[in-house]
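Sharing in case it's useful to others searching the archive later.

Someone asked me privately for the predicted structure of DUF1566 domain-containing protein, so I'm posting the question and my answer publicly. Question first, with the sequence:
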Amino acid sequence: MKMIIWVKYVCIFSVVCMSHFAHGALITRNDFSLDTSTNIITGNGLNWTRWDTLAGVSINQALTSYSEAGWRLASSDEMIGMYSHFISGIDWHSAQDENSEVSDFISVDDYQNLVAIFGVSQNAFGGISNIMFGNDLDNDGAYRSAGAYYTDSEPAAGIYSDNSRHSADFSASDFSVQLVRAINVSEPKLFLLVMCVLLFLGMSKCKSTRL
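And my answer, the predicted structure tokens:
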């Protein structure tokens, strides 16, 4: 009888978990994962927004909408770290300084892996993405951008220096804003933790009843 009760708890736990996660899935590329139920990316110790989520808005607009939830503008180091994960064969660290830049053609596989996770700013010509980020360390009011797009022959990507055109109020349909935040205990993980505790309590109750 006690074994039947224990099996019942396990079945309930499994059914609830499956129903909770049925609406979403994880897509993983290069140690970055996209939760399709929340449209939030996790990688390099951070949460990241997708490029299609914040396309056509300014930095100020993005921060006004998201900063209360812990989101902030991605730094140069964070963008360089992310590009280094997805796009091989390019020394992205040579664009460390906000007045430096690097760009080159990239492989189709690298491009497809990148946009599978981050999406695109504008869904045209195979995808056009320009992503604003940076800390404006020189206090000139100009921010940096990164790019990923198809040329006539093959895809290309770059991390560019700050540009006076890219102020905190600049927006364009083919530009996105890259926000990041520290990883907290997510709702799915918290949910699983609660369910595990309930399962443990149920098993403990069965054992104490048997004793």
